[in-house]
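User: Hello, can you help with two protein structures?

Assistant: Certainly.
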Amino acid sequence: MEKNIARKLWFFGAICFIIAGIVGEKTEFIVLGCAYICIGSSIKKKTIDKDEAQR
């Protein structure tokens, strides 16, 4: 799977978990959503580093 698509899917999952956590008042979902944001950011950083290495 392309890195850009994977990153967008992680961020979409994060938003869904955060919304579900707020609506259902479940802190576990909010924390999980924040973790997904961190994973999505990590994928973005790896993609940027890889692109710079190819130049």
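That covers the first. Now for the second protein you mentioned:
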Amino acid sequence: MKGYEKAVRPVFNSTQTITVNLGLTLTQIFDMDEKNQVLTVNVWLDQSWKDDKLQWNPEQYGGVKVIRIPCDFVWLPDIVLYNSVDDYSEPYMRSLAMLSHDGMIFWPPIVKFRSSCKVDITYFPFDDQICSMKMGSWAYDGLQVDVTNNSDSVDLSNYIDNGEWQLIHAKAVRNVKFYSCCPEPFPDVTFWFHLRRRTTYYTFNIIIPCAILSVLTLGGFLLPADSGEKVSLGLTVLLAFSVFMLLIAENMPATSEFVPLIGLYLTVIMAMTSASVVFSVFVLHIHHKGGRGNRAPLWLRRFTLKYLATYLCTQKELLKCVRHVLDKQDRDELERHVIREWEDVAAVVDRLLFWLFALLTLFSSLALLVFKPLAKEAIVGLDF
């Protein structure tokens, strides 16, 4: 290698273009940092090009056709990750380069890349993320160093599955860009990754507990008003939902561009829980109104005790009690009847609210946790 200068392009004609073939062997996805929007992967960056100044006749060297030499002894293309979040002070792994007798050099360093990835958390925890790694020469234009991909796919033969993210698809696309700084074209190879979050962890640790809490919210309408725990149960459930909201907010990027699906679901359920507390106070007010000695209005009695009680399958013992009181003009008995009348009205309203909130909970759960994620999968499949 006497007289070889590794600092300049290894060509005999300055107008000659060196073609660098890029390939990627993905071995592991280390992390997807949603908060900082950073994807960390471990890859083998396969690079191959022809060095016209490093050729020999195998017959003159004992039939040797391929040798392995330190990469620092030869010219290396300045291939960089354009959307890297790290500085470029540390070079690639200084692995050996394989040099063939015809001048072809193959250099596959192991690299840990940290690239920026715009995270869309709209459907969290049923989200898909599309991330890219844009690679190309930093200083040479396409007339000097032409960067191209040796395959339209990414080598996954050594890939180790990630516990949180499932790799759906990976591909390589060559692009040619023109920048404002220079009139020459700048080619690059962009590697695209379609990742889908595994939902098992979030299903058992967030979704199922939230569903159980929403059922407890309905239980507040089944508690007897005399138990004194109707409002306390609603406030406890509301506090539990607040804790879940804080846990989710800690892992989400601080952006107003996207609202996570699970956050929207918790907000809806929290609003319903807050409304259930207000309605519980209203029911308690009706329940204890009989102590004032005023009978319930006729329209209210007819609507709740005659119509609603029939459809809601509540007990209608009040009619028997009314006949007994009318036959027996006893003041104490009448007072007890008035109290019982308001209590029955409160019980019917309680049952009405139970079924109303049950339907709202079921509808919101199906809409946000089932139908919307299913619609998302069809859209993402068409886009990638």
